[in-house]
Amino acid sequence: MQGNKDGDSPMLALDQSKGPKVMATFCSGCKEEVECAGTANSDVKNVSAFQRFSVVLEGLADCVACGGNGTQELKLRRSAVTLLAFLASSGKPGFEILLGHRLPKRTNFLAMILQMLTSEMDVEVVNCSQPPEIFRERTLLIREALIFLNRLVSNPQYSTPVLRVLTNSRDTTCLTVDIAKRLSCKGKWLWQSDSVTRQMRESEIVELARVFKKRVFTFLGDSMQ
Questions:
Q1: Measured between alpha carbons, how far is 220 from 167 in angstroms, rounded to an integer?
Q2: Residue ranges of the domains in the chain?
Q3: What is the model's pTM?
Q4: For this chain's UniProt record, which GO biological process terms are given (predicted)?
Protein backbone atom coordinates (compact mmCIF):
# COMPACT_ATOMS: atom_id res chain seq x y z
CA MET A 1 0.00 0.00 0.00
CA GLN A 2 1.02 3.59 -0.49
CA GLY A 3 3.13 5.02 2.28
CA ASN A 4 4.05 8.56 3.19
CA LYS A 5 6.81 9.75 0.92
CA ASP A 6 6.28 13.43 1.58
CA GLY A 7 6.69 15.07 4.95
CA ASP A 8 7.54 13.69 8.33
CA SER A 9 5.02 11.56 10.16
CA PRO A 10 4.19 12.32 13.81
CA MET A 11 3.56 8.63 14.38
CA LEU A 12 6.21 5.94 14.70
CA ALA A 13 7.38 5.05 11.19
CA LEU A 14 6.68 1.49 10.07
CA ASP A 15 9.27 -0.48 8.14
CA GLN A 16 7.67 -1.00 4.72
CA SER A 17 9.04 -4.57 4.57
CA LYS A 18 7.82 -5.53 8.04
CA GLY A 19 4.60 -3.51 8.22
CA PRO A 20 2.31 -6.02 6.46
CA LYS A 21 3.66 -8.90 8.59
CA VAL A 22 3.08 -6.95 11.79
CA MET A 23 -0.43 -6.03 10.66
CA ALA A 24 -1.20 -9.62 9.63
CA THR A 25 -0.25 -10.79 13.11
CA PHE A 26 -2.37 -8.09 14.70
CA CYS A 27 -5.39 -8.79 12.47
CA SER A 28 -5.20 -12.53 13.00
CA GLY A 29 -4.98 -12.05 16.74
CA CYS A 30 -7.88 -9.63 16.69
CA LYS A 31 -10.03 -12.05 14.70
CA GLU A 32 -9.20 -14.96 16.99
CA GLU A 33 -10.05 -12.98 20.10
CA VAL A 34 -13.33 -11.77 18.59
CA GLU A 35 -14.30 -15.36 17.83
CA CYS A 36 -13.27 -16.55 21.29
CA ALA A 37 -15.08 -13.69 23.00
CA GLY A 38 -18.27 -14.68 21.22
CA THR A 39 -18.25 -18.31 22.36
CA ALA A 40 -19.83 -19.78 25.43
CA ASN A 41 -16.42 -20.94 26.61
CA SER A 42 -14.82 -17.51 26.50
CA ASP A 43 -12.94 -16.69 29.66
CA VAL A 44 -11.79 -13.50 31.33
CA LYS A 45 -8.44 -13.64 29.53
CA ASN A 46 -10.06 -13.79 26.08
CA VAL A 47 -12.47 -10.98 26.90
CA SER A 48 -9.60 -8.86 28.21
CA ALA A 49 -7.57 -9.46 25.03
CA PHE A 50 -10.57 -8.54 22.87
CA GLN A 51 -10.98 -5.31 24.81
CA ARG A 52 -7.31 -4.44 24.23
CA PHE A 53 -7.66 -4.98 20.48
CA SER A 54 -10.79 -2.83 20.49
CA VAL A 55 -8.99 -0.04 22.32
CA VAL A 56 -6.26 -0.02 19.66
CA LEU A 57 -8.79 0.18 16.83
CA GLU A 58 -10.83 2.86 18.58
CA GLY A 59 -7.64 4.86 19.12
CA LEU A 60 -6.91 4.63 15.41
CA ALA A 61 -10.45 5.80 14.68
CA ASP A 62 -9.92 8.75 17.03
CA CYS A 63 -6.85 9.73 15.00
CA VAL A 64 -8.86 9.68 11.76
CA ALA A 65 -11.58 11.82 13.33
CA CYS A 66 -9.35 14.12 15.38
CA GLY A 67 -10.36 17.77 15.34
CA GLY A 68 -8.23 20.74 14.43
CA ASN A 69 -6.84 22.05 11.16
CA GLY A 70 -3.22 22.68 12.04
CA THR A 71 -0.30 20.89 10.42
CA GLN A 72 0.06 18.40 13.29
CA GLU A 73 -3.60 17.41 13.19
CA LEU A 74 -3.47 16.98 9.42
CA LYS A 75 -0.30 14.88 9.71
CA LEU A 76 -1.94 12.75 12.39
CA ARG A 77 -4.95 12.06 10.19
CA ARG A 78 -2.68 11.21 7.26
CA SER A 79 -0.66 8.83 9.41
CA ALA A 80 -3.86 7.13 10.52
CA VAL A 81 -4.88 6.61 6.88
CA THR A 82 -1.44 5.15 6.16
CA LEU A 83 -1.84 2.76 9.07
CA LEU A 84 -5.23 1.68 7.73
CA ALA A 85 -3.50 1.02 4.41
CA PHE A 86 -1.08 -1.30 6.19
CA LEU A 87 -4.09 -2.95 7.81
CA ALA A 88 -5.62 -3.63 4.39
CA SER A 89 -2.30 -4.96 3.08
CA SER A 90 -2.49 -7.84 5.58
CA GLY A 91 -5.16 -9.55 3.48
CA LYS A 92 -8.49 -11.02 4.51
CA PRO A 93 -8.26 -10.32 8.29
CA GLY A 94 -7.42 -6.67 7.62
CA PHE A 95 -10.27 -6.24 5.17
CA GLU A 96 -12.66 -7.84 7.64
CA ILE A 97 -11.67 -5.27 10.25
CA LEU A 98 -11.99 -2.38 7.78
CA LEU A 99 -15.39 -3.50 6.56
CA GLY A 100 -16.92 -5.17 9.58
CA HIS A 101 -15.45 -3.85 12.82
CA ARG A 102 -18.08 -1.75 14.57
CA LEU A 103 -16.70 1.42 16.05
CA PRO A 104 -18.54 3.64 18.55
CA LYS A 105 -21.66 5.30 17.11
CA ARG A 106 -22.13 2.22 14.88
CA THR A 107 -19.78 3.45 12.18
CA ASN A 108 -16.81 1.87 10.42
CA PHE A 109 -13.42 2.98 9.14
CA LEU A 110 -14.54 3.55 5.55
CA ALA A 111 -17.41 5.77 6.65
CA MET A 112 -14.96 7.75 8.79
CA ILE A 113 -12.64 8.25 5.81
CA LEU A 114 -15.57 9.59 3.78
CA GLN A 115 -16.58 11.96 6.57
CA MET A 116 -12.99 13.14 6.95
CA LEU A 117 -12.63 13.90 3.23
CA THR A 118 -15.90 15.81 3.19
CA SER A 119 -14.80 17.82 6.21
CA GLU A 120 -11.45 18.68 4.59
CA MET A 121 -13.16 19.91 1.43
CA ASP A 122 -15.71 21.93 3.40
CA VAL A 123 -12.94 23.63 5.38
CA GLU A 124 -11.35 24.80 2.14
CA VAL A 125 -14.65 26.23 0.94
CA VAL A 126 -15.00 28.27 4.13
CA ASN A 127 -11.33 29.24 4.36
CA CYS A 128 -9.86 29.42 0.87
CA SER A 129 -6.87 31.56 1.92
CA GLN A 130 -5.08 28.84 3.86
CA PRO A 131 -1.33 29.16 4.49
CA PRO A 132 0.96 27.19 2.14
CA GLU A 133 1.99 24.67 4.81
CA ILE A 134 -1.65 23.91 5.66
CA PHE A 135 -2.54 23.62 1.97
CA ARG A 136 0.35 21.18 1.50
CA GLU A 137 -0.58 18.97 4.45
CA ARG A 138 -4.26 18.90 3.50
CA THR A 139 -3.34 18.05 -0.09
CA LEU A 140 -1.12 15.18 1.09
CA LEU A 141 -3.91 13.93 3.35
CA ILE A 142 -6.49 13.98 0.55
CA ARG A 143 -4.06 12.24 -1.80
CA GLU A 144 -3.31 9.54 0.77
CA ALA A 145 -7.02 8.93 1.37
CA LEU A 146 -7.77 8.70 -2.36
CA ILE A 147 -4.88 6.29 -2.96
CA PHE A 148 -6.20 4.18 -0.10
CA LEU A 149 -9.77 4.17 -1.42
CA ASN A 150 -8.63 3.39 -4.97
CA ARG A 151 -6.58 0.44 -3.76
CA LEU A 152 -9.65 -0.88 -1.98
CA VAL A 153 -12.15 -0.44 -4.82
CA SER A 154 -9.74 -1.96 -7.35
CA ASN A 155 -8.81 -5.01 -5.25
CA PRO A 156 -9.77 -8.10 -7.30
CA GLN A 157 -11.07 -9.97 -4.27
CA TYR A 158 -12.60 -7.28 -2.09
CA SER A 159 -13.67 -4.45 -4.42
CA THR A 160 -17.32 -5.52 -4.42
CA PRO A 161 -17.66 -5.75 -0.61
CA VAL A 162 -15.86 -2.40 -0.28
CA LEU A 163 -18.14 -0.71 -2.81
CA ARG A 164 -21.16 -2.17 -1.04
CA VAL A 165 -20.02 -0.59 2.22
CA LEU A 166 -19.42 2.73 0.44
CA THR A 167 -22.97 2.66 -0.95
CA ASN A 168 -24.90 0.70 1.69
CA SER A 169 -27.22 3.57 2.61
CA ARG A 170 -28.54 6.71 1.04
CA ASP A 171 -26.39 8.97 3.23
CA THR A 172 -23.21 6.97 2.62
CA THR A 173 -23.86 6.84 -1.12
CA CYS A 174 -24.36 10.62 -1.20
CA LEU A 175 -21.06 11.13 0.63
CA THR A 176 -19.19 8.80 -1.72
CA VAL A 177 -20.64 10.35 -4.87
CA ASP A 178 -20.15 13.90 -3.60
CA ILE A 179 -16.48 13.26 -2.82
CA ALA A 180 -15.88 11.65 -6.21
CA LYS A 181 -17.54 14.53 -8.05
CA ARG A 182 -15.99 17.40 -6.13
CA LEU A 183 -12.42 16.12 -6.15
CA SER A 184 -12.54 15.08 -9.80
CA CYS A 185 -13.27 18.65 -10.90
CA LYS A 186 -10.23 20.70 -11.81
CA GLY A 187 -9.79 23.69 -9.56
CA LYS A 188 -7.46 26.63 -9.85
CA TRP A 189 -5.10 27.23 -6.97
CA LEU A 190 -3.17 30.12 -8.49
CA TRP A 191 -2.98 31.94 -5.16
CA GLN A 192 -0.84 29.13 -3.73
CA SER A 193 2.89 29.83 -3.91
CA ASP A 194 3.90 26.16 -3.56
CA SER A 195 3.96 25.12 -7.21
CA VAL A 196 4.67 21.44 -6.46
CA THR A 197 1.67 21.11 -4.16
CA ARG A 198 -0.48 23.14 -6.54
CA GLN A 199 0.42 20.80 -9.39
CA MET A 200 -0.37 17.79 -7.21
CA ARG A 201 -3.77 19.26 -6.40
CA GLU A 202 -4.64 20.26 -9.96
CA SER A 203 -3.55 17.04 -11.66
CA GLU A 204 -2.69 14.04 -9.47
CA ILE A 205 -5.60 14.36 -7.05
CA VAL A 206 -8.03 15.08 -9.88
CA GLU A 207 -6.87 11.94 -11.69
CA LEU A 208 -7.11 9.82 -8.53
CA ALA A 209 -10.62 11.14 -7.91
CA ARG A 210 -11.67 10.38 -11.48
CA VAL A 211 -10.50 6.79 -11.14
CA PHE A 212 -12.46 6.49 -7.89
CA LYS A 213 -15.51 8.12 -9.48
CA LYS A 214 -15.43 5.69 -12.41
CA ARG A 215 -15.28 2.68 -10.08
CA VAL A 216 -18.15 3.96 -7.94
CA PHE A 217 -20.40 4.97 -10.83
CA THR A 218 -19.77 1.70 -12.65
CA PHE A 219 -20.72 -0.22 -9.51
CA LEU A 220 -23.85 1.87 -8.95
CA GLY A 221 -24.87 1.37 -12.58
CA ASP A 222 -24.35 -2.38 -12.39
CA SER A 223 -26.15 -2.68 -9.06
CA MET A 224 -29.25 -0.96 -10.44
CA GLN A 225 -29.56 -3.28 -13.43
A1: 8
A2: 19-223
A3: 0.80
A4: DNA damage response
